[in-house]
Each structure stands twice: as C-alpha cells, then as structure tokens.
Design goal:
The complex is a heterodimer of chains A (247) and B (132). By secondary structure, chain A is an alpha/beta fold. Chain A has helices at residues 20-33, 50-56, 69-84, 103-111, 133-150, 166-172, 181-191, 216-234, and strands at 10-16, 38-43, 60-63, 88-91, 117-121, 162-165, 196-200. Chain B has 132 residues and is mainly α. Chain B is built from 5 helices and no strands. Chain B has helices spanning 3-24, 30-48, 52-59, 65-112, 116-121. In chain B, 6% of the residues are buried. The chains are: A alpha/beta (247), B mainly alpha (132). Chain A binds chain B through residues 42, 60-66, 68, 72, 75-76, 79-80, 83, 178, and chain B through 96, 99-100, 102-104, 106-107, 111.
Chain lengths: 247, 132
C-alpha cells in the first residue's frame, strides 16, 4: 500500500465473527474508499473461513484463539493500534452494515484534532436506516440514558461505527467492556475529558448473518446495558494519569 | 456416646483432614482454602460438642435449633459462591488478556517473518515446572 510517510497513520479495525461470506465485499469496499488506511481484521474465534477471507482481502489478521465477544475483539485492535503508534483508529464491522464511503466523515474531525471520539449515528438526521420499531425505541432509550451519564447529547449509543484519537485508544486499550462496549464506553470516555461528537451516517442492512438483537435478547440487552451504565457510574476509578500533577 | 455423634465426628474429621492434606501438598492455594479450613474446624467443634448448637440457639433465641445449622450452612454457601464469582471474574479477565496477547504475538510473528507459531509447537507439553 502506498502511503505518504509523513501522514498520520490510520488503522481500520474490522471485528469479524463468522463473517466469511461478507468479509471479502467489506474489505474490497474499504480498499476502494479508504486506500491509504491500514486494515486489521480481528477474527474473534470464528469457526468458518473468516481468517482466510481476511488474508485474501489483503488485511492484517489477528486470530483470537476463542470467541471473546465484540468488546474483547475490538480491544485487541486498540492494543495493536497503540503499540504500532496509529494516530487514528476507525472501527468498521465485518458484517457489512458500516458503509466504507462514510469512513472519511468519521476520520476527518479526529485528524484535525477537533474531537477524540466521532460516532457514526443513524438518528442524528433522517437517514435511509430502517430498523424495527422495537429496535429504534431500544436505541433511543439507551442513548437517552447514555447522554445523561455522558453529559452531552448522544443519539446512537449502540453504533459501532466510530473513529478514535490516539488518547482515546490508549484509554480504551485498558478499559473496554467485553459485552456491551459501545454504550458503556461513552460515559467513561466523557469522564476522561475526551471530546465526543456524532456525525450522521447511512448504515446498510447486514450483508449476511443475523442481527445480534432479536426477541428476548433485545430486552436482556437493554436491562444489561442499563445495569452496566449504573454500575459503571458508581465504580471507583483509578487515580488520574500519572505525571499530570507533577510540577 | 451415641453412634450418630461418632459418625458426625468421623465425617467432620475426614472433611477437615482432606482440606489440610490438600493444602499441605499445595494442590490448593491458601487464599482459596481459608473458608474450607474454617468449615472443617467448625464441623469438628460442633460434632464433638454437640450440645453447642442447642446452647448457641438458645442464646440467640432460636426456637428450633437445627434451623440454626441450616442458616449457618446457607451463609457459608453464599459466601463461597461470592468468592467464586470474584475468582471467575478475575480469571476471565486474565484469560481475555492472554487470548489477546497471543493473537497479537502471532500477528507480530507473521509480519516480522519469525515463526512464533512453529516455535511454540516444539515446546514439550510437560515443559515449565518439570524441566527445572
């Protein structure tokens, strides 16, 4: 890949669990729309040919020995990005619901150092997104809760389509929830003083695979995230970063 | 002495002895075994001085003495379960970190051309402690 050696390095993290069928398309689209960025596929213990598909698509691949869940997979990408010194990290899901043509919209505010976290939102402005009524209600409820804890307006707290600055990545590499990372990390990042912004993006229906939120699972998700946010808000925190209060 | 009391003492001693034997052979770490030691000692004490339950029950104003035993047993079980919940949380966190580090190491091995994966296979399964 030809990149300007002076340009800030950008890493696209693609978490993938059994996404053999959609991954080739997703990686091809990323290569076309964001050719200058490195791509890391985190194969979250898939039982299919996800790893092969990722390598065939020209991405670097981390194969996890067993399934860690979305949080554990993405966090692996954060750790990699931190060690390799990437300036910006973008998460693009391997199931094809995050359109690569929107990546630049997320990266740009972080690149010009205006924000630390940029979240691609389906609900900030009217978009083509058509989710079930239950799903929309669920997201609205959790987003409201998330906004209360984060002290700013969030419309799509479950969106995993995000860009992060290096300080945000450094924090998340050590603090990222295994099961409900998307909503849970927003208040945590806000408490760290990270500047958070949403931009309106279009999202597609998944290229393949089934929604991870259906039926009773949806209710359980809402309850668990609510509990997680409440618990998180009363957790004791490690003292501020070492060195900040030194003369 | 009533046979049931002899049986109770024997069982209590067996449980306490099992805990101590495993502790001595370092099959179980001290921090995990504290509750079990306390249980073993408690069982022996209550088996030998079998009037103790009645006396404690009376002192605590418990009408039906055996219910005190069940209550204590329940408390012990809850405590133990909570202890396990803590341990499982700690272990799963460590497990996650290990899986992540292993994945990242394999990737580093691939990109730097060294054969981490192949090298790992040559380590004998008995390795580590046994080779010292």
């Amino acid at each position: 890949m030809v990149t300007d050696p002076g340009a800030p390095k950008v890493l696209i993290i693609v978490p993938a669990y059994n996404e053999e069928r959609s991954l080739a398309r997703v990686l091809a689209a990323i290569k076309e729309k964001a050719p200058a960025y490195d791509v890391l596929v985190v194969n979250d213990g898939s039982g299919d040919g996800t790893s092969r598909a990722a390598r065939a698509g020209g991405a670097s691949v981390v194969d996890l020995s067993f399934n860690l869940g979305i949080g554990g997979a993405v966090q692996t990408g954060f750790k990699h990005a931190l060690r390799q010194g990437y300036a910006v990290v973008v998460q693009v899901d391997g199931d094809g619901q995050h359109p690569p043509e929107e990546i630049q919209k997320l990266v740009e505010p972080v690149l010009r150092d205006a924000y630390d976290v940029v979240i691609g939102s389906r609900f900030l402005e009217p978009t083509d997104y058509r989710g079930s009524r239950r799903r929309r209600l669920m997201i609205a409820l959790l987003s409201w809760l998330c906004s209360r804890f984060a002290g700013g307006k969030i419309t799509d707290c479950t969106s995993g389509f995000r860009a992060f600055s290096q300080p945000a990545v450094a924090f998340l590499a050590d603090n990222y929830d295994m099961e409900y990372p998307e909503p849970k990390c927003i208040p945590a990042l806000a408490r760290q003083g990270m500047r958070i912004k949403e931009v309106s993006v279009n999202m597609r229906e998944r290229a393949s695979g089934i929604s991870s939120l259906s039926g009773l699972k949806a209710l359980s998700y809402v309850i668990n995230v609510t509990l997680a946010l409440l618990v998180d808000s009363i957790r004791t925190r490690p003292s501020q970063r070492v060195g900040e209060d030194e003369p | 002495m009533r046979p049931i009391i002899i049986l109770a003492v024997v069982i209590a001693l067996a449980i306490a002895g099992t805990v101590l034997a495993n502790l001595r052979r370092q099959r179980i770490r001290e921090e995990y075994s504290l509750l079990w030691i306390l249980l073993g000692i408690g069982l022996v004490v209550f088996a030998v001085f079998n009037d103790l339950v009645d006396q404690v029950a009376e002192a605590l104003d418990v009408v039906y003495a055996p219910s005190l035993v069940f209550f204590l047993g329940f408390c012990f079980t809850l405590l133990l379960l909570f202890h396990y919940a803590l341990e499982i949380s700690r272990l799963s966190e460590q497990n996650k970190v290990l899986a992540q580090e292993l994945g990242l190491l394999k990737l580093e091995g691939e990109t730097s051309g060294t054969t981490v994966a192949r090298g790992a296979k040559s380590v004998s399964p008995e390795g580590g402690e046994g080779s010292r």
